[in-house]
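Researcher: Re-running this chain for the archive, since the previous output was lost when a drive failed. Same request as before.
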Amino acid sequence: MTPAENLPYNPFAPVDLGVARHEMLFGNAYPEAFGDWRDEVMSWKTGAYLTAALNPTLTFRLSGPDALRLLSDHSVNGLTRFPVDAARHLIMCNPAGQIVAHGICVREGEESFLTYWLMPWVSYLAESGRYRVTGENLTGRVFLFQVAGPRSLAVLQAATGEDLRDIRFLRRRATRIAGCAVHVLRVGMAGSLAYEVHGPAEAAHAVYRTLLAAGSPLGLRQLGRTQYRMNHTENGFPQGHVHFLYPWFEDADFARYLTARSGGTPFKTDLRGSAGPDPSLRYRTPVEVGWGHVIRLDHDFMGRQALEAELAAPRRLIATLTWNPEDVLDIYRSYLTEGTPHPFMDFRIDMPPLAQPAPHVSDLVLKDGNVVGISSGRVYSYRYRKMISLASLDAGLAVQGTEVVVLWGDPGTRQREIRAVVDRYPLFDEGRNEDVDVSGPEFAPSAGAAPG
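Model: Regenerated C-alpha coordinates:
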Protein backbone atom coordinates (compact mmCIF):
# COMPACT_ATOMS: atom_id res chain seq x y z
CA MET A 1 0.00 0.00 0.00
CA THR A 2 1.31 3.43 -0.93
CA PRO A 3 1.61 5.83 2.07
CA ALA A 4 -0.94 8.63 1.77
CA GLU A 5 1.63 11.34 2.49
CA ASN A 6 3.61 10.30 -0.60
CA LEU A 7 0.70 10.78 -3.01
CA PRO A 8 -0.03 14.27 -4.33
CA TYR A 9 -3.64 15.25 -4.93
CA ASN A 10 -4.90 14.12 -8.33
CA PRO A 11 -7.52 16.57 -9.66
CA PHE A 12 -8.81 14.11 -12.25
CA ALA A 13 -9.59 10.98 -10.21
CA PRO A 14 -9.83 10.12 -6.51
CA VAL A 15 -6.60 8.59 -5.20
CA ASP A 16 -7.11 4.97 -4.16
CA LEU A 17 -4.92 4.26 -1.13
CA GLY A 18 -5.60 0.54 -1.46
CA VAL A 19 -3.49 0.39 -4.62
CA ALA A 20 0.04 -0.91 -4.14
CA ARG A 21 1.83 1.08 -6.81
CA HIS A 22 1.16 4.41 -8.49
CA GLU A 23 2.78 6.10 -11.46
CA MET A 24 3.42 9.82 -11.68
CA LEU A 25 2.24 11.58 -14.82
CA PHE A 26 2.58 15.36 -15.06
CA GLY A 27 2.66 15.53 -11.26
CA ASN A 28 -0.45 13.39 -10.75
CA ALA A 29 -0.53 9.99 -9.08
CA TYR A 30 -2.40 7.30 -10.98
CA PRO A 31 -2.52 3.54 -10.25
CA GLU A 32 -0.33 1.28 -12.35
CA ALA A 33 -2.97 -1.41 -11.70
CA PHE A 34 -6.04 -1.48 -9.45
CA GLY A 35 -6.02 -5.23 -8.89
CA ASP A 36 -5.38 -8.32 -10.97
CA TRP A 37 -4.11 -6.97 -14.29
CA ARG A 38 -5.63 -9.95 -16.10
CA ASP A 39 -9.12 -8.91 -15.03
CA GLU A 40 -8.37 -5.39 -16.25
CA VAL A 41 -7.23 -6.44 -19.74
CA MET A 42 -10.26 -8.71 -20.14
CA SER A 43 -12.66 -5.91 -19.19
CA TRP A 44 -12.91 -4.40 -22.68
CA LYS A 45 -13.75 -7.81 -24.16
CA THR A 46 -16.25 -9.16 -21.65
CA GLY A 47 -17.51 -6.25 -19.54
CA ALA A 48 -16.43 -2.63 -19.25
CA TYR A 49 -13.64 -0.49 -17.86
CA LEU A 50 -13.36 3.05 -16.52
CA THR A 51 -10.07 4.90 -16.79
CA ALA A 52 -8.77 8.39 -16.10
CA ALA A 53 -5.30 7.37 -17.29
CA LEU A 54 -5.23 9.91 -20.13
CA ASN A 55 -5.45 12.90 -17.81
CA PRO A 56 -4.34 15.58 -18.10
CA THR A 57 -5.33 15.27 -21.76
CA LEU A 58 -3.65 17.74 -24.11
CA THR A 59 -6.74 19.75 -25.05
CA PHE A 60 -6.69 22.77 -27.34
CA ARG A 61 -9.60 24.88 -28.58
CA LEU A 62 -9.14 26.35 -32.05
CA SER A 63 -11.59 29.03 -33.12
CA GLY A 64 -11.92 31.75 -35.72
CA PRO A 65 -12.84 32.19 -39.39
CA ASP A 66 -9.76 30.23 -40.57
CA ALA A 67 -9.99 27.39 -38.05
CA LEU A 68 -11.38 24.85 -40.52
CA ARG A 69 -8.89 25.94 -43.19
CA LEU A 70 -5.96 25.45 -40.81
CA LEU A 71 -7.14 21.92 -39.98
CA SER A 72 -7.76 21.09 -43.64
CA ASP A 73 -4.36 22.45 -44.75
CA HIS A 74 -2.57 20.18 -42.30
CA SER A 75 -4.75 17.07 -42.10
CA VAL A 76 -4.86 14.15 -44.51
CA ASN A 77 -8.57 13.80 -43.75
CA GLY A 78 -11.31 15.22 -45.92
CA LEU A 79 -13.24 17.80 -43.86
CA THR A 80 -15.89 19.02 -46.31
CA ARG A 81 -18.51 17.09 -44.33
CA PHE A 82 -17.85 17.87 -40.68
CA PRO A 83 -21.09 18.73 -38.80
CA VAL A 84 -21.27 20.25 -35.33
CA ASP A 85 -20.92 17.63 -32.55
CA ALA A 86 -19.15 15.24 -34.91
CA ALA A 87 -15.58 14.02 -34.32
CA ARG A 88 -12.74 13.07 -36.63
CA HIS A 89 -9.49 11.23 -36.06
CA LEU A 90 -7.18 13.84 -37.58
CA ILE A 91 -3.75 12.88 -38.88
CA MET A 92 -1.18 15.62 -39.55
CA CYS A 93 2.05 15.08 -41.48
CA ASN A 94 5.26 16.83 -42.47
CA PRO A 95 6.24 17.34 -46.15
CA ALA A 96 7.73 13.81 -46.22
CA GLY A 97 4.33 12.36 -45.28
CA GLN A 98 5.48 11.32 -41.79
CA ILE A 99 3.01 11.66 -38.92
CA VAL A 100 3.68 14.68 -36.71
CA ALA A 101 0.40 14.61 -34.77
CA HIS A 102 -2.78 12.60 -34.56
CA GLY A 103 -5.78 12.77 -32.28
CA ILE A 104 -9.48 13.46 -32.00
CA CYS A 105 -11.04 16.72 -33.16
CA VAL A 106 -14.63 17.65 -32.24
CA ARG A 107 -16.50 20.42 -34.01
CA GLU A 108 -18.30 22.36 -31.29
CA GLY A 109 -19.46 25.27 -33.48
CA GLU A 110 -19.23 26.64 -36.99
CA GLU A 111 -15.87 28.25 -36.26
CA SER A 112 -14.82 26.36 -33.12
CA PHE A 113 -13.07 23.01 -32.69
CA LEU A 114 -11.81 21.05 -29.70
CA THR A 115 -8.67 19.02 -30.34
CA TYR A 116 -7.28 16.24 -28.19
CA TRP A 117 -3.60 15.22 -28.40
CA LEU A 118 -2.92 17.37 -31.47
CA MET A 119 -0.79 19.67 -29.32
CA PRO A 120 1.88 20.91 -29.55
CA TRP A 121 1.67 20.80 -33.36
CA VAL A 122 -1.76 22.45 -33.58
CA SER A 123 -0.80 25.23 -31.16
CA TYR A 124 2.37 25.83 -33.20
CA LEU A 125 0.24 26.24 -36.33
CA ALA A 126 -2.22 28.50 -34.53
CA GLU A 127 0.61 30.78 -33.38
CA SER A 128 2.26 30.91 -36.80
CA GLY A 129 0.35 34.05 -37.83
CA ARG A 130 -0.78 32.49 -41.11
CA TYR A 131 -4.38 31.99 -40.02
CA ARG A 132 -7.11 34.13 -38.49
CA VAL A 133 -7.56 31.90 -35.47
CA THR A 134 -7.46 32.00 -31.70
CA GLY A 135 -6.03 29.18 -29.67
CA GLU A 136 -6.88 28.29 -26.07
CA ASN A 137 -4.98 25.65 -24.12
CA LEU A 138 -7.52 23.81 -21.94
CA THR A 139 -5.09 21.18 -20.66
CA GLY A 140 -5.67 20.64 -16.95
CA ARG A 141 -8.96 22.54 -17.00
CA VAL A 142 -11.00 19.66 -18.41
CA PHE A 143 -11.16 15.92 -17.81
CA LEU A 144 -11.50 12.95 -20.13
CA PHE A 145 -12.66 9.55 -18.92
CA GLN A 146 -12.94 6.46 -21.08
CA VAL A 147 -15.67 3.87 -20.54
CA ALA A 148 -15.15 0.92 -22.86
CA GLY A 149 -16.33 -2.64 -23.41
CA PRO A 150 -19.58 -4.42 -24.32
CA ARG A 151 -21.32 -3.07 -21.20
CA SER A 152 -20.03 0.50 -21.52
CA LEU A 153 -23.32 1.89 -22.80
CA ALA A 154 -25.20 0.27 -19.93
CA VAL A 155 -22.80 1.89 -17.45
CA LEU A 156 -23.28 5.34 -18.96
CA GLN A 157 -27.06 5.01 -19.13
CA ALA A 158 -27.13 3.96 -15.49
CA ALA A 159 -24.99 6.98 -14.55
CA THR A 160 -27.02 9.50 -16.59
CA GLY A 161 -30.51 8.01 -16.31
CA GLU A 162 -30.85 8.63 -20.05
CA ASP A 163 -31.19 6.58 -23.20
CA LEU A 164 -27.90 7.20 -25.04
CA ARG A 165 -28.43 4.78 -27.90
CA ASP A 166 -28.78 7.66 -30.36
CA ILE A 167 -25.07 8.55 -30.09
CA ARG A 168 -23.51 7.22 -33.27
CA PHE A 169 -19.84 6.42 -33.75
CA LEU A 170 -17.74 9.62 -33.76
CA ARG A 171 -20.68 11.69 -32.49
CA ARG A 172 -21.27 13.34 -29.12
CA ARG A 173 -24.11 14.86 -27.16
CA ALA A 174 -24.64 16.69 -23.90
CA THR A 175 -25.97 15.03 -20.76
CA ARG A 176 -25.49 15.22 -16.99
CA ILE A 177 -23.69 12.99 -14.51
CA ALA A 178 -23.71 13.71 -10.77
CA GLY A 179 -25.53 16.93 -11.62
CA CYS A 180 -22.63 18.10 -13.76
CA ALA A 181 -22.88 19.05 -17.43
CA VAL A 182 -20.76 16.70 -19.55
CA HIS A 183 -20.49 15.46 -23.12
CA VAL A 184 -20.49 11.79 -24.09
CA LEU A 185 -18.54 10.94 -27.25
CA ARG A 186 -18.70 7.53 -28.87
CA VAL A 187 -15.05 6.77 -29.52
CA GLY A 188 -12.32 4.80 -27.81
CA MET A 189 -9.07 2.89 -28.08
CA ALA A 190 -10.38 -0.47 -26.83
CA GLY A 191 -11.55 -1.75 -30.21
CA SER A 192 -14.90 -2.75 -28.69
CA LEU A 193 -17.91 -0.51 -27.97
CA ALA A 194 -16.47 2.52 -26.20
CA TYR A 195 -17.23 6.08 -25.11
CA GLU A 196 -15.51 9.10 -23.60
CA VAL A 197 -16.93 11.46 -21.00
CA HIS A 198 -15.69 15.06 -21.16
CA GLY A 199 -16.28 17.80 -18.64
CA PRO A 200 -14.75 20.53 -16.44
CA ALA A 201 -11.92 19.46 -14.14
CA GLU A 202 -13.72 20.67 -11.01
CA ALA A 203 -16.42 18.05 -11.61
CA ALA A 204 -14.01 15.17 -12.29
CA HIS A 205 -14.13 13.46 -8.88
CA ALA A 206 -17.93 13.57 -8.63
CA VAL A 207 -18.37 12.24 -12.16
CA TYR A 208 -15.77 9.50 -11.67
CA ARG A 209 -17.37 8.28 -8.43
CA THR A 210 -20.82 8.26 -10.01
CA LEU A 211 -19.61 6.26 -13.00
CA LEU A 212 -17.87 3.81 -10.69
CA ALA A 213 -20.97 3.35 -8.54
CA ALA A 214 -23.26 3.00 -11.57
CA GLY A 215 -20.97 0.42 -13.13
CA SER A 216 -20.26 -1.66 -10.06
CA PRO A 217 -23.38 -3.89 -10.42
CA LEU A 218 -22.40 -4.38 -14.08
CA GLY A 219 -18.90 -5.61 -13.30
CA LEU A 220 -17.12 -2.36 -14.23
CA ARG A 221 -13.34 -2.50 -13.73
CA GLN A 222 -11.01 0.39 -13.13
CA LEU A 223 -8.13 0.29 -15.61
CA GLY A 224 -4.54 0.99 -14.59
CA ARG A 225 -2.12 2.88 -16.81
CA THR A 226 -0.10 -0.16 -17.85
CA GLN A 227 -3.18 -2.09 -18.92
CA TYR A 228 -4.45 0.95 -20.82
CA ARG A 229 -1.24 1.04 -22.84
CA MET A 230 -1.57 -2.67 -23.63
CA ASN A 231 -4.82 -2.45 -25.53
CA HIS A 232 -3.51 -0.47 -28.52
CA THR A 233 -1.41 -3.31 -29.93
CA GLU A 234 -4.09 -5.94 -29.48
CA ASN A 235 -6.73 -3.68 -31.01
CA GLY A 236 -4.62 -2.52 -33.93
CA PHE A 237 -4.51 1.20 -33.14
CA PRO A 238 -0.88 2.42 -33.20
CA GLN A 239 0.08 5.25 -30.88
CA GLY A 240 2.72 7.94 -31.02
CA HIS A 241 5.52 7.44 -28.46
CA VAL A 242 4.55 3.74 -28.25
CA HIS A 243 4.51 2.33 -31.78
CA PHE A 244 6.25 5.21 -33.53
CA LEU A 245 7.98 8.49 -32.82
CA TYR A 246 7.13 11.93 -34.17
CA PRO A 247 9.83 13.60 -36.32
CA TRP A 248 9.48 16.85 -34.40
CA PHE A 249 13.18 17.65 -34.22
CA GLU A 250 13.67 17.18 -37.95
CA ASP A 251 11.88 20.55 -38.32
CA ALA A 252 14.28 23.24 -37.04
CA ASP A 253 11.58 25.88 -36.53
CA PHE A 254 9.31 23.53 -34.62
CA ALA A 255 12.26 22.30 -32.56
CA ARG A 256 12.93 25.90 -31.48
CA TYR A 257 9.24 26.30 -30.63
CA LEU A 258 9.32 23.21 -28.40
CA THR A 259 12.56 24.13 -26.72
CA ALA A 260 11.36 27.66 -25.94
CA ARG A 261 8.20 26.32 -24.30
CA SER A 262 10.02 23.72 -22.27
CA GLY A 263 12.22 26.31 -20.62
CA GLY A 264 15.24 24.87 -22.39
CA THR A 265 14.75 21.42 -20.85
CA PRO A 266 15.79 18.81 -23.44
CA PHE A 267 13.26 16.24 -24.58
CA LYS A 268 14.55 12.78 -23.74
CA THR A 269 13.54 9.41 -25.11
CA ASP A 270 15.46 6.25 -24.34
CA LEU A 271 15.80 4.57 -27.74
CA ARG A 272 15.83 0.84 -27.11
CA GLY A 273 15.70 -2.27 -29.25
CA SER A 274 17.62 -3.55 -32.24
CA ALA A 275 16.47 -0.59 -34.39
CA GLY A 276 19.30 1.25 -32.64
CA PRO A 277 19.91 4.94 -31.98
CA ASP A 278 18.71 6.36 -35.32
CA PRO A 279 15.30 7.93 -34.52
CA SER A 280 14.35 8.16 -38.21
CA LEU A 281 13.81 4.38 -38.30
CA ARG A 282 10.96 4.92 -35.84
CA TYR A 283 9.01 7.50 -37.85
CA ARG A 284 5.88 6.36 -39.71
CA THR A 285 3.51 7.49 -42.42
CA PRO A 286 -0.26 7.00 -42.23
CA VAL A 287 0.00 4.24 -44.84
CA GLU A 288 2.58 2.35 -42.77
CA VAL A 289 0.32 2.28 -39.69
CA GLY A 290 -2.89 1.27 -41.44
CA TRP A 291 -4.48 4.68 -41.88
CA GLY A 292 -4.15 4.99 -45.65
CA HIS A 293 -7.93 4.70 -46.01
CA VAL A 294 -8.33 7.99 -44.13
CA ILE A 295 -6.30 9.99 -46.67
CA ARG A 296 -8.43 12.11 -49.00
CA LEU A 297 -6.83 13.58 -52.12
CA ASP A 298 -9.69 16.06 -52.61
CA HIS A 299 -7.70 18.93 -51.07
CA ASP A 300 -4.15 20.21 -50.71
CA PHE A 301 -2.49 19.39 -47.40
CA MET A 302 0.98 19.15 -45.94
CA GLY A 303 2.59 15.94 -47.16
CA ARG A 304 0.08 15.29 -49.96
CA GLN A 305 2.67 14.79 -52.72
CA ALA A 306 4.59 12.19 -50.75
CA LEU A 307 1.46 10.35 -49.61
CA GLU A 308 -0.14 10.35 -53.05
CA ALA A 309 2.94 8.57 -54.38
CA GLU A 310 2.94 6.15 -51.44
CA LEU A 311 -0.74 5.28 -51.90
CA ALA A 312 0.01 4.37 -55.50
CA ALA A 313 2.86 2.04 -54.48
CA PRO A 314 2.93 1.35 -50.71
CA ARG A 315 6.36 0.45 -49.37
CA ARG A 316 5.26 -0.94 -46.02
CA LEU A 317 1.94 -1.95 -44.44
CA ILE A 318 0.80 -2.66 -40.89
CA ALA A 319 0.62 -6.21 -39.52
CA THR A 320 0.21 -8.04 -36.22
CA LEU A 321 3.12 -10.31 -35.35
CA THR A 322 2.74 -13.32 -33.04
CA TRP A 323 6.07 -14.28 -31.49
CA ASN A 324 7.21 -17.88 -31.26
CA PRO A 325 6.57 -19.06 -27.66
CA GLU A 326 9.66 -21.27 -27.48
CA ASP A 327 11.89 -18.40 -28.54
CA VAL A 328 10.23 -16.10 -25.99
CA LEU A 329 10.73 -18.72 -23.27
CA ASP A 330 14.42 -18.86 -24.20
CA ILE A 331 14.67 -15.15 -23.33
CA TYR A 332 13.35 -15.82 -19.84
CA ARG A 333 15.40 -19.00 -19.52
CA SER A 334 18.54 -16.88 -19.89
CA TYR A 335 17.65 -15.08 -16.63
CA LEU A 336 17.67 -18.38 -14.73
CA THR A 337 20.83 -19.97 -16.07
CA GLU A 338 24.52 -19.23 -16.09
CA GLY A 339 26.00 -16.92 -18.69
CA THR A 340 25.12 -13.53 -20.12
CA PRO A 341 21.35 -13.02 -20.12
CA HIS A 342 19.39 -11.49 -22.95
CA PRO A 343 18.16 -7.90 -22.44
CA PHE A 344 15.31 -7.85 -19.96
CA MET A 345 11.83 -8.43 -21.38
CA ASP A 346 9.05 -7.10 -19.17
CA PHE A 347 6.32 -9.73 -19.42
CA ARG A 348 3.35 -7.46 -20.02
CA ILE A 349 4.64 -4.59 -22.10
CA ASP A 350 7.73 -2.93 -23.57
CA MET A 351 6.93 0.28 -21.67
CA PRO A 352 7.33 -0.71 -18.01
CA PRO A 353 5.80 1.61 -15.44
CA LEU A 354 7.88 4.26 -13.72
CA ALA A 355 10.69 4.17 -16.30
CA GLN A 356 12.26 7.61 -16.82
CA PRO A 357 13.04 8.71 -19.43
CA ALA A 358 10.33 6.69 -21.14
CA PRO A 359 11.83 3.96 -23.31
CA HIS A 360 10.80 3.55 -26.93
CA VAL A 361 11.46 0.00 -28.08
CA SER A 362 11.62 -0.80 -31.79
CA ASP A 363 13.13 -3.94 -33.25
CA LEU A 364 14.27 -4.86 -36.73
CA VAL A 365 12.20 -7.46 -38.58
CA LEU A 366 14.19 -9.80 -40.83
CA LYS A 367 13.42 -12.16 -43.68
CA ASP A 368 16.24 -14.33 -44.99
CA GLY A 369 18.69 -12.08 -43.15
CA ASN A 370 17.41 -8.86 -44.76
CA VAL A 371 15.64 -6.03 -42.92
CA VAL A 372 11.99 -6.01 -44.06
CA GLY A 373 10.31 -3.93 -41.37
CA ILE A 374 10.16 -2.52 -37.86
CA SER A 375 8.32 -4.06 -34.89
CA SER A 376 7.13 -2.08 -31.86
CA GLY A 377 4.55 -2.06 -29.08
CA ARG A 378 5.24 -5.61 -27.89
CA VAL A 379 2.70 -6.80 -25.31
CA TYR A 380 1.42 -10.04 -23.87
CA SER A 381 -2.16 -10.76 -24.92
CA TYR A 382 -3.83 -12.60 -22.07
CA ARG A 383 -6.98 -13.03 -24.17
CA TYR A 384 -5.13 -14.96 -26.89
CA ARG A 385 -2.20 -16.25 -24.80
CA LYS A 386 0.28 -14.76 -27.23
CA MET A 387 3.25 -12.39 -27.22
CA ILE A 388 2.45 -9.91 -29.97
CA SER A 389 3.61 -6.66 -31.55
CA LEU A 390 2.66 -4.39 -34.41
CA ALA A 391 5.01 -4.16 -37.37
CA SER A 392 5.33 -2.08 -40.49
CA LEU A 393 6.42 -4.69 -43.05
CA ASP A 394 7.43 -4.60 -46.69
CA ALA A 395 4.09 -4.63 -48.48
CA GLY A 396 4.45 -8.08 -50.01
CA LEU A 397 5.06 -9.64 -46.58
CA ALA A 398 2.14 -8.12 -44.65
CA VAL A 399 0.05 -11.20 -45.40
CA GLN A 400 -1.34 -13.51 -42.72
CA GLY A 401 0.84 -16.58 -42.34
CA THR A 402 4.11 -15.00 -43.48
CA GLU A 403 7.06 -16.10 -41.35
CA VAL A 404 9.64 -13.52 -40.28
CA VAL A 405 12.21 -12.99 -37.53
CA VAL A 406 12.25 -10.24 -34.89
CA LEU A 407 15.74 -9.30 -33.74
CA TRP A 408 15.35 -8.78 -29.99
CA GLY A 409 17.80 -6.74 -27.93
CA ASP A 410 19.79 -3.53 -28.06
CA PRO A 411 22.87 -3.38 -30.30
CA GLY A 412 25.93 -4.54 -28.38
CA THR A 413 23.94 -6.86 -26.11
CA ARG A 414 23.18 -10.57 -26.36
CA GLN A 415 20.54 -10.31 -29.06
CA ARG A 416 18.11 -13.09 -29.93
CA GLU A 417 16.37 -13.86 -33.20
CA ILE A 418 12.73 -14.60 -32.38
CA ARG A 419 10.62 -16.33 -34.97
CA ALA A 420 7.28 -14.62 -35.63
CA VAL A 421 4.31 -15.07 -37.93
CA VAL A 422 1.98 -12.47 -39.40
CA ASP A 423 -1.35 -12.84 -37.63
CA ARG A 424 -4.69 -11.21 -38.40
CA TYR A 425 -4.91 -7.45 -38.11
CA PRO A 426 -6.31 -6.30 -35.82
CA LEU A 427 -5.89 -9.31 -33.57
CA PHE A 428 -8.89 -8.27 -31.47
CA ASP A 429 -11.70 -7.99 -34.01
CA GLU A 430 -14.78 -8.79 -31.93
CA GLY A 431 -17.60 -6.22 -31.90
CA ARG A 432 -15.66 -3.23 -33.23
CA ASN A 433 -17.03 0.10 -32.02
CA GLU A 434 -17.79 1.44 -35.49
CA ASP A 435 -19.79 -1.72 -36.33
CA VAL A 436 -21.87 -2.24 -33.18
CA ASP A 437 -25.58 -1.44 -33.64
CA VAL A 438 -26.87 -0.23 -30.28
CA SER A 439 -30.37 0.65 -31.44
CA GLY A 440 -31.91 -2.66 -30.38
CA PRO A 441 -33.88 -3.32 -27.18
CA GLU A 442 -31.00 -5.28 -25.66
CA PHE A 443 -29.18 -1.95 -25.26
CA ALA A 444 -32.16 -0.09 -23.79
CA PRO A 445 -31.65 1.50 -20.36
CA SER A 446 -32.64 -0.64 -17.39
CA ALA A 447 -35.90 0.30 -15.78
CA GLY A 448 -35.51 2.53 -12.76
CA ALA A 449 -32.03 3.79 -13.60
CA ALA A 450 -31.12 6.71 -11.38
CA PRO A 451 -30.85 10.05 -13.22
CA GLY A 452 -27.51 11.82 -13.45
